[in-house]
């Protein structure tokens, strides 16, 4: 498949790119600093652009089978509308380009429960932005899947548990490798259309 990755220079985004290449896909990494992608592969194309610029995205997204976004603010405590603005630009660009499939990362803290309420309070600026992003995605007229992982780790495994509309029980963390595997599985297996999916170790 031909996959378009937003946030490809991030810790989860890099995993998405590496695993997608290993699975035989063609990747376009849409990044603001191409020099930070050191990986070289004949199936990897790097395109410089701004994740909130609808016109740049629409031009670059054309002819892809799906879009994966692992975008996130570098400073989670500061007020930001990056996720919302990028979701708006991405969904509009996808509509214009005729690309329907979107798998995007959000956060398990949006699920109910006291620990999630505490995380949401501590990270309130980020969580507000991420919830606004989810709304845009759900109303964007696309075949979307929103993945909500808990705390992300650098551990070396790709297995995960998933549950539609709820968090997997007692799932407090997940490796970024496993998040990437889930996002790619959802696309390859045509699963979780129009669903918020809780994922965890
Ligand atoms: N950390 C956790 O424990 C956790 C838990 C649950 C959910 N999540 C969610 O998972 C997502 C990915 O997390 P991560 O830790 O893999 O992220 P990360 O390593 O911080 O990477 C963030 C990515 O977003 C890009 N980005 C940031 N600001 C940007 C901007 N203004 N314009 C364009 N691109 C920008 C970065 O590009 P540059 O390389 O150019 O900066 C990078 O590619 C986040 O949305 C986060 O909310 C995280």
Tell me about the biggest sheet? 8 strands, mixed
Q: Could you name the CATH topology? A: Rossmann fold
The stretches of 5 or more residues where confidence is low (pLDDT under 50) are none
Q: So how many helices?
A: 6
What is the string of helix and strand elements?
Answer: EHEEHEHEHHEEEEHE
Main sheet: which strands, in order across? Answer: 3-2-1-4-5-6-10-8
Strand content: 15-25%
CATH architecture identity? 3-Layer(aba) Sandwich
The overall pLDDT, averaged over residues, is 97
Looking at the structure, what is the overall shape? globular
Considering the chains and any ligands shown, give keywords for the structure.
globular; Rossmann fold; eight-stranded mixed sheet; 201 residues; two-stranded parallel ribbon; 36% helix; single chain; binds NADP nicotinamide-adenine-dinucleotide phosphate; alpha/beta
Helix and strand layout, with pairings?
Layout: E1 2-6, H1 11-22, E2 26-31, E3 44-48, H2 54-61, E4 66-69, H3 82-97, E5 101-105, H4 114-122, H5 124-138, E6 143-148, E7 151-153, E8 161-164, E9 173-175, H6 176-188, E10 195-200
Parallel strand pairs: 1-2, 1-4, 2-3, 4-5, 5-6, 6-10, 7-9
Antiparallel strand pairs: 8-10
Helix pairs in contact: 1-6, 2-3, 3-5, 4-5
Residues 7, 9-13, 32-33, 36, 51, 70-74, 82, 105, 107, 130, 149, 151-152, 176 line the site of NADP nicotinamide-adenine-dinucleotide phosphate.
How would you describe the overall organization of this protein?
- The protein has 201 residues and is α/β, with parallel strands linked by helices.
- It has one domain: Rossmann fold.
- Helices cover 36% and strands 23% of the residues.
- The protein is built from 6 helices and 10 strands; from the N terminus they run E-H-E-E-H-E-H-E-H-H-E-E-E-E-H-E.
- The chain has helices at 11-22, 54-61, 82-97, 114-122, 124-138, 176-188; strands at residues 2-6, 26-31, 44-48, 66-69, 101-105, 143-148, 151-153, 161-164, 173-175, 195-200.
- The strands form 2 sheets. An 8-stranded mixed beta sheet has the order 3-2-1-4-5-6-10-8, with helices on both faces.
- Helix 1 (11-22) packs across helix 6 (176-188), helix 2 crosses helix 3 and helix 3 (82-97) packs parallel to helix 5 (124-138).
- The longest helix is centred in the middle third of the chain and has 16 residues, at 82-97.
- The radius of gyration is 15 Å and the shape is globular.
- The structure holds NADP nicotinamide-adenine-dinucleotide phosphate.
- NADP nicotinamide-adenine-dinucleotide phosphate binds next to helix 1 and strand 7.
